[in-house]
Amino acid sequence: MHDEANIENALRTVAERQQSFVQQLFARDTDDLGLNAEGMKIYRQNLRATATQALSISFPTVYQLIGDELFTFATEKLLLKQPPSQGDWAKWGSGFAEVLKGLEQLDDYPYVADCARLDFAIHYSEKARNTSFEFESANLLAQVALDKLGIEIADSVTILESDFPLIELWNAHHSDEKENYIQAFKDKTTQADFKQYILAYRPSYKAIVSELSESEYFWMSRLICGKSVGLSLDLLEASTFNFEQWLPKAIEQNLLVRFYSKN
Amino acid sequence: MSLLPSTSEVPLPKVGLGLRHPHFADALTSVAPIDFVEVHSENFFAEGGATIAVLDEILEKYPVSLHSTALGLGSAQSIPDAHLAKLKALAAKVKPILMSDHASFSWSQLNGQSVHVGDLLPLSFDKQSLIVLAHNVDRVQQYLGRSLLIENLSAYVQLDDNSMTETEFLVELTELTGCKLLVDLNNIIVTAYNQNELNIQAFAQAWLNDIPVDKVGEFHLAGYSAVDQGQLIVDDHSQEVSRECWELYRYALKRFGPIPTLIERDNNLPSWGTLLEEVKVARNIAEQVLSNTESNNRLCYA
Questions:
Q1: Rounded CA gap, B186 and A145, in Å?
Q2: Which residues have CB under 8 Å from A239's CB, separation 6+?
Q3: Assuming Cys at both sites, which of A17, A119, B75, B90 could form a disulfide with A59, CB separation 3.0 to 4.6 Å?
Q4: Chain A residues lying within 8 Å of B80, measured CB to CB
Q5: Residue at a domain's end among A83, A107, A131
Q6: DSSP category for residue B26
Q7: Cα A50 from Cα A70, distance rounded (Å)
Q8: Helix count and strand count (H, E) for chain A
């Protein structure tokens, strides 16, 4: 193999060339690319097509909502704003909701950006680490003070809040009862001060969305932030949240990994 | 496992099929008469969920080759440790019969940000690129504890810095790192067309003649979509194996012997059964070529 100095020198030289190639690849102008114009066009088309296909898998509801043309346009915006950096297209797209929020074509459809957040939460959930509740850890409930007790939430769980009826919107695109959900979406959209709290979780292989009460949402958001069971309950003092009722349901839904001591 | 007993006494190549998502159910319903399946590593980078469960089922039924498309082994920007760790974990689970990626780059910088372009970008065939590629291949092989197969690309651009031929570049890579080559026969044909070679088979055969017989670890066979005259052919893996590719396969078998062979199809997928027919064609050709007394007179240009 080559010595270190040769390698360093080669890395520097090749890095410059490759950065210049990538700059041309992401550029949208049609500057003179000389003999390589046709070839560069192929690489540009590949990049655009692969990126659009990847996002259409991660954001299936948004894709159906806004159609291929606008979706491709939004994908290009994301490519420039937040190019992929992980070598796994399935991981790309965390900034897509922000891009959609900024599109003037969607000014009259403000729920699309929130819908993207829900799509990505479901996509993320379906690829997250497999976990199941460690029942022995429940012994800590009797051994550790509640303000020193934490609950680890499964990686496959995401909670969201939205001013729009996203669950109905999502079901309108993914269930057999489309018409009912479309009607429910329309009805709820007209309600003043509408708020929806959403849970995306994965009991087995398929992610599920369901609605949370406001108190369940704040309770779970505190646990996800690493706050103790005691503190999280104290912050909900005046609410109707019932820990004893929540716990078995949460275990059944595969929301929890384990109890742990925060000492 | 599906390793069909050969009725011939002549050693025949293992022939496999690229397994893509739409064919998972077909491949898992019953064990197909193929020697292995090839999956794209990055499609199984998820930490859990249904994809991993499917992979477990695949592993119960078939030997698996892991073909990566995102290592970007020719990148001057370092391949992130986290990416390599995912590949290593996958390899530990799969115990693949072969592991491969391309002579290409993917990682770079764009306006000060790290970027992975998600494509197989071309390398200049010169000393500097060779040093970078060899450095990365060596690093990855050391990390994985096994050797890689490196695949030749289809050419769409002519880079200014070339100072050696593609085959000189690839052969030197094998000597520097101990890796072998995954020779994609369709890519050689596509390159020949895109470089306006007058005699496609002559170009492709000369390309193969430049590679020593002990440096090849796998063949990929594929087709390409026809284009209008003057346009570049894209290696889109959307067509059946072309007549030209079958012809070149005969030549490659004569030269290199029973090298593991993969039928590669990623887009415009036909039925699983249609792909299995292509496996049969590959086997028939291999049997004809390798058992034929005329062809036992192996061509040796190494």
A1: 67
A2: A214, A215, A218
A3: A119
A4: 86-87
A5: A107
A6: H
A7: 16
A8: 11, 5
Give the residue carrying structure tokens 């004809």: B288
Q: Using CB atoms, which residue from B42, B74, B157 is nearest to A36?
A: B157
Domain that holds residue A49: 1-107
Residues A252 and A131 in one domain: yes
Residues A103 and A174 in one domain: no
Residue A153's closest CA among A95, A232, A211, A206? Answer: A232
Whether residue A87 is found in the same domain as residue A122: no
Look up residue B177 and give its two tokens: 């790192």
Asked whether the ipTM of the predicted complex exceeds the cut of 0.95, the reply is no
Residue where the block lists tokens 């292989």: A205
- The verdict on A249 and A200 lying in the same domain is yes
Q: Which of A52, A76, A107 is the last residue in one of the domains?
A: A107
Query: Domains in chain B, start-ordered, CATH in brackets?
Result: 15-296 (3.20.20.150)
E strands of B170-259, at which residues? 180-184, 216-221
| Binary contact (A14, B128; C-beta < 8 A) | yes
Within 8 A by CB and 6+ apart from B143, the residues are B84, B88
Q: How many domains does chain A have?
A: 2
Q: Which residue has the higher pLDDT, B236 or A229?
A: A229
Window B:180-199, CB contacts with A under 8 Å = 194
CB-based contact (8 Å) between B227 and chain A? no
B299 has pLDDT over 50: no
| Domain identity same for A163 and A263 | yes
**Same domain (yes/no): A141, A260:** yes
- Nearest of B186, B144, B180, B204 to residue B260 by alpha carbon: B180
- Statement to judge: residues A256 and A130 lie in one domain: yes
Cβ-based contacts under 8 A for chains A and B: 154
The average pLDDT across A220-245 equals 90
Number of H helices, E strands in chain B: 10, 10
pLDDT, tens only, A59-88: 999 999 999 999 999 999 999 999 999 999
Residues 6+ apart with CB under 8 A from B241: B186, B221, B222, B223, B263, B278, B281, B282
Q: How many CA atoms lie within 13 A of B99 on its CB side?
A: 21
- From the CA of A198, how many Å to the nearest CA of chain B? 21
Cα radius of gyration rounded to whole Å, chain B: 19
Per-residue pLDDT averaged across B38-60, rounded? 96
Mutate to test the interface with A, among B73, B86, B116 (most CBs of A within 10 A): B116
> Is the domain of A103 the same as that of A171?
no
pLDDT tens digits, A118-143: 999 999 999 999 999 999 999 999 99
